[in-house]
Amino acid sequence: MTNLHLTKLGIIGGTGLTQLADLTLIKRESLTTPYGQPSADFITGELAGKTVVFLARHGNPHTIPPHKINYRANIWGLKQLGVDNIIAVAAVGGISPAMAPAHIAIPDQLIDYSYGRKHTFFETEDYPVTHIDFSFPYNPKLRAALCAAAAQAGVAVTQTGTYGCTQGPRLETIAEITRMEQDGCDLVGMTGMPEAALAKEIGMAYASVSVIANWAAGKSAGEITMAEIEQNLHIGMANAAKLLKAYIAMADD
Ligand code: HPA
User: Fold this and answer.
1) Using an 8 Å Cβ cutoff, are 150 and 243 in contact?
2) Is the pTM of this model over 0.90?
3) Atom of ligand 1 minimally distant from the CA of 216
4) Which of 91, 157, 202, 245 could lock onto 150 through a cystine, CB 3.0 to 4.6 A?
5) 91 CA to middle of ligand 1, Å?
6) What is the pLDDT of residue 4?
7) Ligand 1 site-directed mutation target among 104, 173, 177, 214, most atoms within 8 Å of CB
8) What are the extents of the domains in the chain?
9) Could you tell me the fold of the domain covering 6-250?
10) What pLDDT is attached to residue 168?
11) What is the pLDDT of residues 172-224, one digit of tens each?
12) What is the distance between the alpha carbons of residues 100 and 105, in angstroms, rounded to a whole number?
């Protein structure tokens, strides 16, 4: 279906996806990188007859908050294992009307509101000053393949959207979400950056499967509760897993 090489697919699982059910374990590796320790062991396994490398972004168990994730070590580790396509699954809040809880979006743009994170590989004398093109933060080919896989799996997805990355770990104020909406954000999450940019810096194709956990602040009555988030993620992540399975089954070896 695509000419993406599936032997080099990496999946980063977010909140609600600490492990990939149906992945038959081949190898579990603890890697050290020049940037320090990744979030968890890298799990190489087989799914739908193909090899996949899985990493739990927040650790397993889920203990690393978004601003403390070692994004550089995670991306470097995947690269070290030969991964060149990354599907990043993440829980998000829904801002625009189509982004209802438990729904899935495959964003095509992002705005970065995070700060203080180690956000580049290009900051030592090992590299010349480098400015990557980031017009298209998410790989169009990988996104198209994910949308085709969603159709095949019967999973409804919104095929575009702008992801706004906040610092967390707290959720946003209503005024912050109003500002983000005015900026053009459809979704709000805490882990999309610098992950996407780091992948691009070292030549990896990257796309996000954003699973909507709740209406963003001010978009529904009352406060956002963890119980609501967990309930929606339960449904949304099951659909994300279905989509991933279809993607893997459809992609070329
Ligand atoms: N804001 C930021 N990140 C999130 C949210 C939210 O409302 N829900 C899940 N991740």
Assistant:
1) yes
2) yes
3) 7
4) 157
5) 7
6) 47
7) 214
8) 6-250
9) Rossmann fold (3.40.50)
10) 96
11) 999 999 999 999 999 999 999 999 999 999 999 999 999 999 999 999 988 99
12) 10
